[in-house]
Predict the structure.
Amino acid sequence: MDPIEFSRKYGGKIQIEPKVPIRSYDDFAVIYTPGVAKVSEAISANKDLSFELTSRWNTIVVLTNGTRVLGLGNIGPEAALPVMEGKALLFKYLGGVDAFPLPVRAKDVNDFKAIAKAIEPAIGGINLEDTESPLCFEVLEELRKELEIPVWHDDQLGTAAASLAGLINAFKLAEKDIKTAKVVLFGAGAANIATAKLLEIYGFDKSKIILIDSKGPLYADRSDVDKLMFTNKWKYELAVTTNKEGATTVEKAFEGADAVVAASTPGPGVIKPEWISKMASRAIVFALANPDPEIMPEEAYQAGAFIVATGRSDFPNQINNSLVFPGVFRGVLDSRSKHISDTMAVEAAKALAAYAERKGLRRDYIAPRMDEWEVFYYVAAAVATKAKEEGYARLRLSYDEYLDLAKKRILKARSEIKAVTEIGY
Amino acid sequence: MAIRRATPSDLETLTELFSRMYMLNSEFDPLLKVPDDIKERVRDVMAKELENKSKLIYVYEESGYIYAAIKISLDDRIFYEPNKVARIEEFYVRPSRRRSGLGRLIIKYVEEELGKMGITMLVARFPSKNLIASSFYTKNGFREIHSEYAKMISAGVEEQ
C-alpha cells in the first residue's frame, strides 16, 4: 500500500488506550477522583512510587528535533513525527514498551535539557533519535548527567551495539584476536563514533582503530583536528587516540585491516573492492548504509572478504539497531534503572552475540535475525542485570526474574497487537 | 626528548605549526580571518625572526619530530613596571601531545630561561573565545590584565 494512503487511512500509527477494566461509572471513583487522590498522596511522599502506581514504569518518549531524519536531513519536527510514530510502534511490538513520539522545537543542548527535565516526572526513559551530530553527543552526555532516568541515543548506541555484536561473532568465526585487531571505521558520524567507544570497552585496542571521514583517515595531526577540539570534542578525542600508525590515505588505512565497519553514505561504489583486497586474510566487512550498502556483498566477497554484513534484511547478516533498542529499554524499564551506561550497551551486544552463538555461528549467520523474537528477552535480562550490578536499578531482581519479566511483557504486547489486528481498525 | 632553541633548519616546521595556530584563531572570530597566503607570510616572518635577537623561538622535539613550538618576543613596556616583558606571540602544541602536560612543561622551561635573562613578566595573547587557552593560562598562573575590543569601521563614511 502507498505509505501516504496507509497513513491517511489509519490517521497515524499509534494511539493511547486505557488498560484498566471499566465496568460501570462507579469505577471512575477509583480510576479518577476522589480515589486517585490517595495515589497522588502516596507518590508525593515517595516519588519512586510513581514507577509502581502509574504507567511511568513502562513509558518512554522518542525525542527528536528533526534535524537528521533518516536520509532526509533537517526536515523539522512535524515531518519527523511519522518516523517517531513508527519507532514508537516498534518499541511496543518488539519490546513491549509504551513509547510516545515527541518531536520538539529544540535548537541546542539547553533547549533539550529544559524539555527533558520538564518531562522527566512523567516518563521512565528517553530514546533520543534522528538529531544532528555533534549536537546529539552533547545532548546525550548532558541528559545522562542531569536526569535520573535512562537516556539512549539510538543512532549512536543502537547501531554501535549491533555492530559490536556482529564483530564479536565474526572475529570468532575468522579466528582473529580482538586485542591485536586493526579495525577501520568507515564514516565518522554518530554511529561509528559510538562504535569506537564500545569496541574499546569490549577490549579492542583503540590505537589500532582508524576512523575515516570525507577527508580521509582521521589522525592526530590532520590539519582540521585543531578545529574539532572546539566543535566536536568526541571526534577530536578519537583523532588523538586512534590511528597510532598514522595512516593518512584510505588505502593505507585498509592495508592489513582485520575488519571494516562502514556506516557512511549509501553505495554501491563507496567502498572500493581494491581496498577490501588490501585487508588481512579472512577480512570482515560490515557495509551498513541503507538502502544500499557501501559495497554490495557479492563484490566484497569477490574482493576477498570472509564475512560480509549489511543493514538490509534481504541479505544474510543484517546488522540493525532494531536488534538492540527494544531489549535495552525492556531491560532498563524492568529494572527501573536510572541510567543506561556504555557498559550496559556492551552487555546488550554480548547478549545478542551469545544468542546467535547458541544457535550456531556460520559465515552467513553472525547475528540474530529480526524475526528471532526471543533474543529481546535475553538482551533485556542482560541489560537489567548490568544495571543492577552498576547500582542504577531501582528494582533489583535476579537474571532469571528479569528474563521472565521481559518475556511476559513482550508477549503480552504482542498478543495485544494481534488482538487489535484481528478486530481491525 | 628536549626543548631547544629553534634553528633555521626548523623553518618549515615552524611555518606549519604557527600557520595552524593562526588558522585555528580564525575560527573564533571573523575579525581574526587569515589571508589565503598565511603560510607564505608566516614563513617570511619566521625566516627573519629566527635571526632576530629579541625573539626567542623554542621547539619541543622527540625522536627527530617536533611536537610543539613557541615564539616569545622581548618587549619594552616603558609606562609600566616592570619595563621589560616577554610576550608569547605564537604557541602551538600538536593535538597528539595535548593534555599530556607538555604545554606546562614548555611554559616552565621558558620561565626559567627568561629568569636567567632577568625578565620577570610573561604575557600571553589569544582570542577571547578560545576558552581552552584561557583555561590553560589560568592554570599556569596567568591572569587577565588587558582586554582588546575590535570593530570594523568604514573610513570617512558616517554610518546612517
Observations:
- The first strand of chain A starts at residue 59 and ends at 64.
- The domain at 3-149 of chain A is CATH 3.40.50.10380 (Rossmann fold).
